[in-house]
């Protein structure tokens, strides 16, 4: 196989593998078998071994294999990742709704309700469509560079269509460990004589802060993207709902439970419904974000 043919085939394989990852890890609707996936992946690895100059930063083969770090470098957030204000009862929620209506000059507005995933908040920056930097929230102003670890999370795209995005933009999400994955991980740790993790959140945080990305890759982490942090070169979506729809169209995993409503009563009804339903969700949630 000559280099031109190898280049074409590598591009075909990357497209097929990325599509398979999206179907499996984002849509939860696989279209090829594990055996077929492994065959495609092995073929791509062989082509890149034969022609190293064909390896691209967003190749599926680059998710795993980075060498261990001695320490994490510090990343300064372009826009601070500030904490949320809390309310703990219906009266406080109603007071917040009234304050918001007063601030914007109308009580006619749309609210987006999102499950508050119990995981670790992260910032992911893309440059020219390629995942460039991933960082923890840290103190809200500075976090740790965990780029190589985030690349191992299969539901995070290593690249997005360059013709559909600005040159630089940041997304924010919550990395978490699904309940079933947490159970399997703890079972394996006990079998290996290691102490089990206390809860899925601690397990997710500990997994992302491993200096060796191969350890992170061995743990079934997932993500829900919940916000567009900042962007350059394009018009920012006007609303949170539009931002989420845009991110979803690019291949990011957005929580399907997210709901929008035009009334305070709608927010309260959504919360009551989720209180009843959350025990059936495959992940832990410790509140609702409005």
Task: List the main descriptive attributes of the protein structure presented here.
single chain; 290 residues; alpha+beta; Helix Hairpins; D-amino Acid Aminotransferase, Chain A, domain 1; three-stranded antiparallel beta sheet
Task: Give the helix/strand layout.
Blueprint: H1 3-26, H2 34-50, E1 74-76, H3 90-104, E2 111-117, E3 120-127, E4 130-136, E5 142-144, H4 147-151, E6 168-176, H5 179-191, H6 200-208, H7 213-217, E7 222-232, H8 240-249, E8 259-261, H9 264-277, E9 285-289
Antiparallel strand pairs: 1-5, 2-8, 2-9, 3-4, 3-6, 6-7
Helix pairs in contact: 1-2
Task: Explain this structure.
Among the domains are: 3-62, Helix hairpin bin (Helix Hairpins); 121-253, D-amino Acid Aminotransferase, Chain A, domain 1. With 290 residues, it is α+β, with helices and mostly antiparallel strands. Strand 3 (120-127) and strand 4 (130-136) form a beta hairpin. The chain has a 4-stranded antiparallel β-sheet. A 3-stranded antiparallel β-sheet has the order 8-2-9, covered by helices on one side. A two-stranded antiparallel ribbon has the order 1-5. It contains 9 helices and 9 strands. Helix 1 (3-26) runs antiparallel to helix 2. The model has no long low-confidence stretch (mean pLDDT 93). The chain has helices spanning 3-26, 34-50, 90-104, 147-151, 179-191, 200-208, 213-217, 240-249, 264-277, and strands at 74-76, 111-117, 120-127, 130-136, 142-144, 168-176, 222-232, 259-261, 285-289. It is globular and about 70 Å long.
